[in-house]
Design a protein that fits this description.
With 479 residues, the chain is of the alpha/beta class. The protein folds into 4 domains: 140 residues, 3-Layer(aba) Sandwich (Rossmann fold), CATH 3.40.50.2300; 99 residues, Beta-Lactamase; 75 residues, Helix Hairpins (Orthogonal Bundle), CATH 1.10.287; 144 residues, Histidine kinase-like ATPase, C-terminal domain (Heat Shock Protein 90). Helices cover 46% and strands 25% of the residues. The protein is built from 15 helices and 19 strands. Strands 2-1-3-6-7 form a 5-stranded parallel beta sheet, with helices on both faces. A 5-stranded antiparallel beta sheet has the order 9-8-12-11-10, with helices on both faces. Helix 11 packs across helix 13 and helix 13 packs antiparallel against helix 15. The mean pLDDT is 84.
Length: 479
């Protein structure tokens, strides 16, 4: 509430001097405020003065020669003038009153009925409304800033999931512009089809969901793990709508997976080293004893059996050596390497198998060469292990292997996909464990060695797979 000392800068736009003097006389007699009044009778001059936003209130006659007060309101609105305008007219007219309200007039007074009380009440109402609008603008600005600057996706959608408003964080997370999202259903981005109806059904039944974990597809078909918190609300027209937040936890999930893989490797390494030590001690004794027996006292009848023991003892020792190599960090010789050339070497290495089984290999690469520091031979072996597994997973003649090299910022990504048999969820969780294999004649050391080499290159590996649909390996390196 303004005090009696509050000064109001008032502009009166009136082409009749007598009417101005009457209004000014009332304004000077107001007990609650001190008014500094300026009179302008030319339309263009009034528009120019108001667009400077220096007046508290403007009183404008409805008729201003060839123009009128509603034209004035529209013209000053175009230049973002926020000064409230109160229209004055010679007589009451409902249609003019409605038109003025729609145009943005704060109030409408009839000159013939004007008195001190009505003028004071109009000004008080206008000042209170200005104050409320200012608070609304500040509140809207604050929440608009939260909406626009949030690193999480904030969205509004209809009850069926059709997006009506979404902030620009969607371009960072789902690689699609906010404008492209409007009109699309939120569930279109879900990677798992079964979760699409489930989310909407939960919202409809429970009214809200919190930290619902799901996988969303970006516009480039990469997968983001996200948490969705949303609620079903009712608008002023009793229509239901959904408001919610989507929080990207992909990096957190990757870190958890990487930590779990590191812990598994460390635990496997400790177990393997202990096992190797415990096995090699008695194995050495066996081998030494067999060698002595062969040299000193073996008969022709005994020699074949002793040689069998010796060969299998060596085989056991070789297996232990391979196992130790798969669990130890690789000794690497880092040099600048052309990744295009390295991948081409891998493709050349499997060319005979590809031709023999009549399968296709598609290789996509950017026009510019990508160079990174790596141990070429070791990295080539790691990628070759994955490509060979992909070849073995697909069917003859219909098999397809896709190898794609891409870069984004400082991250280089090698994607290896196949349309093979896929990997079950249970096997996927054990994929890089030493001696775990689903192959009949496999030893289960290939992917364990691959993971060791990739970790030595500070690379991260992602695996997506679906039974009877195929598998995708993504190898991500920081350049």
């Amino acid at each position: 509430m303004q005090s009696a000392n509050t000064i109001l800068n008032i502009l009166v736009v009136e082409d009749d001097e007598d009417d101005f003097l009457l209004i000014n006389d009332y304004l000077q007699k107001l007990p609650s405020w001190k008014c500094e009044v300026k009179w302008i009778y030319r339309y263009e001059e009034a528009v120019e003065a108001l667009c400077k936003n220096t007046y508290t209130i403007c009183f404008s006659d409805y008729r201003l020669g060839a123009r009128n007060g509603i034209d004035l309101i529209r013209d000053i609105s175009a230049c973002n003038c926020t000064t409230p305008v109160i229209l004055l007219t010679g007589r009451g007219n409902y249609e003019i009153d409605m038109e003025a309200t729609k145009a943005g007039a704060f109030d409408y007074l009839i000159k013939a009925d004007l008195d001190l009380d009505k003028l004071e009440r109009t000004i008080r109402y206008t000042l209170e409304r200005i104050n409320n609008l200012q608070k609304l603008r500040e509140s809207e600005k604050k929440y608009r800033a939260i909406f626009e600057k949030s690193k999480d996706i904030v969205f509004l959608a209809s009850a069926d999931g059709t997006i009506s408003n979404i902030n620009y964080a969607v371009s960072d997370i789902l690689e699609i512009t906010a404008e492209e999202c409007i009109g699309r259903k939120l569930t279109e981005f879900f990677h798992v089809p079964a979760q699409r109806d489930h989310l909407l059904n939960m919202l409809d039944a429970e009214g809200e969901i919190e930290n619902y974990e799901t996988e969303l597809l970006t516009s480039h078909n990469s997968i983001k793990t996200c948490l969705i918190s949303a609620s079903m609300e009712t608008g002023g027209n009793d229509e239901k709508y959904i408001q919610g937040i989507i929080h990207d936890i992909t990096s957190l999930k990757k870190a958890e997976t990487a930590t779990l893989q590191a812990e598994k490797l460390a635990a496997s390494g400790r177990f393997i080293r202990t096992l190797a030590h415990e096995v090699r001690n008695p194995l050495n004794n066996i081998n030494l004893s067999v060698e002595n027996l062969l040299e000193q006292m073996a008969t022709e009848d005994d020699r074949p059996y002793l040689e069998i023991i010796q060969r299998n003892g060596k085989r056991i020792n070789d297996l232990i050596t391979e196992l130790l190599h798969s669990s130890r960090p690789a000794d690497l010789n880092f040099q600048p390497v052309s990744v295009k050339e390295l991948l081409q070497n891998v493709i050349n290495a499997v060319q005979d198998r590809v031709l023999l089984r009549k399968i296709r290999v598609n290789y996509k690469t950017p026009d510019t060469d990508l160079v990174m520091k790596a141990d070429a031979s070791k990295l080539e072996m790691a990628i070759l292990n994955i490509v060979v597994n992909a070849i073995e997973a697909v069917k003859d003649e219909t098999g397809l292997i896709e190898i794609e090299l891409s870069s984004r910022g400082k991250q280089l990504t090698i994607t290896i996909s196949d349309n093979g048999c896929g990997i079950s969820a249970e096997n996927k969780s054990r994929l890089f464990e030493p001696y775990f294999t689903s192959k009949r004649n496999g030893m289960g050391l290939g992917l364990a060695t691959t993971l060791n080499i990739l970790r030595s290159h500070n690379a991260y590996i992602e695996v997506d797979s679906e039974i009877d649909a195929g598998t995708t390996f993504r190898l991500m390196f920081l350049m």
